[in-house]
Write a structure and sequence with these properties.
Largest sheet: none
Protein name: Helix-turn-helix domain-containing protein
Keywords: DNA-binding, Membrane, Transcription, Transcription regulation, Transmembrane, Transmembrane helix
Oligomer: single chain
GO molecular function, one term: DNA-binding transcription factor activity
Radius of gyration: 27 Å
Helix content: over 70%
InterPro entries: Homeodomain-like_sf (IPR009057), HTH_AraC (IPR018060), TPR-like_helical_dom_sf (IPR011990)
Shape: elongated
Strand content: under 5%
Number of helices: 26
Order of helices and strands: HHHHHHHHHHHHHHHHHHHHHHHHHH
Number of strands: 0
Structural class: mainly alpha
């Protein structure tokens, strides 16, 4: 037979050589037939894995199933782990994150006590990817750092990918300078190792960082140039992220037509590919405002429908992933906590059904009465470009033990007076709580009945009032000095926050305080 004359290495070389050509299929089949004829289970797994690299999603997943099935015929735990890991990576590629996580956890279970370091760290890297995706950035950082130390000397591509993952973590935590430092290292190391395929991703992340640092023109240049390469790879998840930040930057520059084009791309990717991330939800607030300004009632109705679909998707996917990750990988939950989680999930199913029913009734009402009341509907989107406190409260229903832990974090944060630190953002506070942004905001809403900004600002103003009662000198400070005293970055923000909390301006409040003390 033809395959008997070739080694597996020779056949694999031919598979790579003929990539993109019909002849490649001949060598894919020869590789698998050789493994079957020889009864070599490990090479059969490799043969099925080869097919997953070069086939469409549906066919690739079918070959992935065969790969896992063959591995289970062996007594080799590392082989079983490898097959499940490969299947998980395949699911992750197609943004099927729940399925990917299930495979990673199975792979991890087969690797307990394994001496196969490469496989252990490869699994660890992929679990870090899921943690990063969910918003558990501080936990993912430790995993990425250990992967960097290992892969630096054992696998070039794993090393570069881990550097990118670490940079992404710091970016999502709001540490943009630290993220940029790692990006520079990543680009230099990728060049040294001749791995150019990650350049677009480092460039895109740099563009996102520049967006948050308000260097908008540099951000747009980086995002647009990287988007071209990312779309060539058919990577719709990162393409969606690129379009979102381009939309926000153009919006800030008051170029709303360009902003709308990019936001519509995000919506199109969600409609066609079913991909969405909590960071991208704001897209629909911007689109809603655009259509409200134009009084385009039909499109405003469509946006309301899309928001419902997006929220259902995020509720279903992110709650499942985060609970499963912590219970099965971290193994920090007791049996009692697991029972509480199951009970919570049942309650959530009832809640989701109720919310869907309410949404349908609301939608029917809007359809029937929206035309004579277009100003009302427009107001839904004109209020602001961020979800309201009510939105935040309903965005996610947390397990009781998770909420109690976050309540403790809130109390520690307030007692330590860390709110006096300047420039807190949502990502940084979530990291401080060892949680993610969605959970952190939900806890603040549940226990303090406030949104993120009001929570931080009110703590600072209350602190200032207490200080003024003890220190008479503060009554004579100007607004700029008072703002600096309690962590506000600008006088304007301080003045607005003070008036919102106390119902009067700081100047008026402290004038009356001085008069009272002089009487």
């Amino acid at each position: 037979m033809l395959f008997a004359q070739n080694s597996y290495d020779d056949l694999y070389q031919k598979i790579e050589e003929y990539e993109g050509y019909p002849r490649q299929t001949i060598y894919l089949n020869l590789y698998l037939e050789k493994a079957k004829a020889e009864g070599d289970l490990e090479e059969m797994v490799n043969g099925y894995r080869n097919f997953t690299y070069y086939r469409s999603e549906k066919t690739a997943l079918a070959y992935g199933d065969s790969m896992v099935w063959v591995s289970l015929l062996s007594q080799d735990d590392p082989l079983k782990a490898n097959a499940h890991l490969s299947k998980g990576i395949l699911f992750y590629k197609y943004k099927r994150y729940s399925d990917a996580l299930a495979c990673y956890l199975i792979a991890d279970s087969y690797l307990q006590g394994s001496s196969d370091e490469y496989l252990v760290y490869k699994t660890r890297y992929n679990i870090a990817q899921i943690k990063n995706f969910l918003g558990f950035h501080s936990e993912a950082i430790g995993l990425y750092q250990s992967c960097i130390q290992y892969f630096k000397y054992h696998n070039d591509r794993g090393y570069i990918n881990s550097l990118h993952g670490l940079a992404l973590c710091y970016s999502r935590m709001g540490e943009f300078n630290k993220s940029n430092e790692i990006i520079i290292i990543g680009i230099a190391e990728a060049k040294r190792l001749s791995i150019q395929s990650m350049d677009a991703y480092f460039k895109q992340l740099s563009g996102i960082n520049h967006s948050y640092m308000y260097d908008l023109h540099s951000a747009i240049q980086l995002l647009e140039s990287s988007l071209v390469e990312i779309e060539k790879k058919n990577d719709f998840a990162n393409a969606s992220s690129g379009h979102f930040y381009l939309g926000k930057n153009y919006w800030t520059l008051n170029q709303k037509e360009k902003a709308q084009q990019h936001f519509q791309e995000v919506d199109q990717i969600f409609s066609e590919q079913g991909y969405m991330h909590p960071d991208l939800r704001e897209t629909y607030q911007f689109l809603g405002m655009i259509h409200a300004e134009k009084e385009d009632l039909d499109k405003m109705e469509n946006i309301l429908v899309q928001i419902g679909k997006v929220d259902n998707y995020l509720q279903e996917n992110f709650q499942y992933l985060s609970s499963k990750l912590h219970v099965e990988f971290d193994q920090t939950a007791s049996q009692k906590e697991n029972q509480a989680l199951k009970k919570s999930l049942k309650q959530n199913q009832v809640l989701v059904f109720f919310l869907v029913l309410v949404f349908i009734v609301l939608w029917v009402f809007l359809v029937l009465y929206i035309r004579p009341k277009k100003d009302y509907v427009g107001g839904i989107f004109r209020r602001n470009s961020s979800p309201t406190a009510s939105d935040e409260k309903n965005a996610v229903s947390l397990p009781t033990l998770t909420l109690l832990n976050l309540k403790d974090q809130l109390e520690k944060f307030e007692k330590s007076e860390k709110y006096l630190k300047k420039d807190w953002n949502q990502a940084q506070l979530a990291a401080e709580f060892n949680s993610n942004v969605v959970y952190m905001k939900s806890a603040i809403q549940t226990f303090r009945n406030k949104g993120f900004s009001d929570y931080i600002n009110d703590l600072r103003i209350d602190h200032l009032i207490r200080l003024a009662e003890r220190d008479s000198k503060l009554k004579y400070y100007d607004n700029k000095s008072l703002a600096q005293e309690v962590g506000f970055s600008t006088t304007d923000r301080f003045t607005k926050a003070f008036k919102s909390r106390m119902g009067t301006s700081p100047s008026e409040y402290f004038r009356k305080l001085r008069e009272k003390s002089e009487d």
